[in-house]
Amino acid sequence: MISTTTAKIINILPDKFVTYISKRVVDKYLKKYANINVKGNENLKGIKTPTIFICNHLSNSDGLVLDKALKEIDPTFIAGVKLSNNVFTSIGVNVIKTTNIKPNTADKEGLKKIIKLVKQGENLLIFPEGTRSRVGCLIEAKKGIFLIARTTGAPIVPIGLYGTEKLLPVNKEGDMSAETFNYADVYINIGKQFDFPKRAKEQDKKEYEDFATKYIMKKIAELLPENYRGVYK
C-alpha cells in the first residue's frame, strides 16, 4: 500500500490533481493485483434508468472494481462518510462518484439526498448490508435499501461479487490504513433487472419490509457461490 506521507500529499493537492493522481494509483494497484472476471454484461443492455444497483460487500476494494465493471453506466456509489475522512480510503473515494451517508444512524438528510439523486435520473449503487462483511458471506441488510427502493420505485439490478475479500482483506483491528492489496481473482456476476416487490393487502408494514428486503437480498445471493450466501441461503 502507499505510504501515509504519500497519501497525505495526494489529498492536499488541488481537486483536479487529486482525482487524476488517485485514478493513476488505483489503476496501478488493480492492474497489478486483481484478475477481474465479469459475467452478465448482457444484462446491462437496454435497462431502464434510473436504476438501483445492489451488491454484497466484502472489501474496501469493492467500489473500485465495480466502478471498472460499470463504467458505461456511471452509477453514484453510496459510501460511509468515514471513507472520505480516512487518508487512505479517501483516495478510492476520489476515483468514483459517491454520495455520503452516516452508517448505523437515522441519517435523514443523507437519505433525502440519495432519493433526490435517483428521482433526478442518477443510477445508484448501494451495498445493502451497510458495512463490509467480516465473516466472508452475506449478513443482514440494513433498512436503508428498503426505504430508498420503495420511495423511488426504481428498478433494481443485483450483483454478486467475490474475491475482493482476498484482494484487499478487512483489517481485523479495524485499521483501514493497515489494509494491503494481494493478488486475487475477482468475480463480478451481474443479474437481470427486476422491479421492487409490491405490498400485498394482507401484509402489515413490518411484514412487507421484511419480505421485500429478503426478496431483493436473495437476488444477490443467487449470483454468489453457496458459501458466500450467508443468512440469505
Automatic annotation (TrEMBL):
Residues 51-164 form the Phospholipid/glycerol acyltransferase domain. It comes from the Bacteria. Keywords: Acyltransferase, Transferase. GO terms for molecular function: 1-acylglycerol-3-phosphate O-acyltransferase activity. Pfam families: Acyltransferase (PF01553). The keyword Phosphoprotein does not apply. The keyword Transferase applies. GO terms for biological process: phosphatidic acid biosynthetic process. InterPro entries: Plipid/glycerol_acylTrfase. This is 1-acyl-sn-glycerol-3-phosphate acyltransferase. It comes from Anaerovirgula multivorans. The lineage of its organism: Bacteria, Bacillati, Bacillota, Clostridia, Peptostreptococcales.
